[in-house]
Amino acid sequence: MTEFTSKDLEVISGVLMNEGMACKKARMYSKTLTDVALAECMEKIAESHEQRFNALLSVLEGK
After folding, report:
1. HEC letters along 13-62
2. Where are the domains of the chain?
3. Reported pTM
4. What CA–CA distance (Å, rounded) separates 48 from 25?
5. What average pLDDT does this structure show over 16-32?
């Protein structure tokens, strides 16, 4: 298992918050856009942010 410094955890925490917020916003936009192509694009962006969020979380959990 990797040992993290307090600064590492602070940075990762900030990135997790940003990825989570970006995912939520992109998903919200994907549901409110009337242009189907843009809505699909935003859903793909949301999925990318969610994958990065989950990857960072699994690093913290030691998986």
Report:
1. HHHHHHHHHHHHHHHHHHHHCCCHHHHHHHHHHHHHHHHHHHHHHHHHHC
2. 26-63
3. 0.87
4. 13
5. 97
